[in-house]
Amino acid sequence: MIKYKLTCKDCKILFDSWFSSSKEFDKLKKKKILNCHNCKSTKIEKTLMAPQLINNFKDGPLKPKNTKSKEIDNKIREYQKFIRNNFNYVGKNFAYEARSIHYENKKSDKGIIGSASNDEIKELREEGIETRVIPWIENKDN
Ligand SMILES: [Zn+2]
Fold first, then answer.
1. Residue 28 Cα, ligand 1 centroid: separation in angstroms?
2. Alpha carbon distance 41, 43 (integer Å)
3. pTM over 0.70
4. Spacing, Cα 7 to ligand 1 middle (Å)
5. From ligand 1's centre to the CA of 45, what distance in Å?
6. What are the residue boundaries of the structural domains of the chain, listed by start?
7. How far is the CA of 100 from the centre of ligand 1 (A)?
8. Are strands 87-91 and 111-114 parallel, antiparallel or unpaired?
């Protein structure tokens, strides 16, 4: 529903009226169904809703920024949930587990995820073991 402030061109009064959409206003005006309750004139016009435009402008620059950072946060958390469900968490044993999969052809239907130092990651890469570093947010709720 849209509230328009309308004005009558003949008697100059102002009044509010509700419409389901801006198209409905145009349709009713075209069919001359809209008329002034004071003088019955059909010369009804919309007035500009200046205060509303000012409010939108004032709230504009702040909201999208907050929404965006929260969106990214939610995306990462969703991603973490997916990883927890689809990978075996091995914690600090990551380098050991990665090697045993690589060298012993240890069968695993799930990938592994865990923590490793930069040196360990470097060593694994030199040995040709593919590792990927992903962004991770520590969940403070847990
Ligand atoms: Zn009028």
1. 16
2. 6
3. no
4. 8
5. 11
6. 2-46, 67-126
7. 87
8. parallel
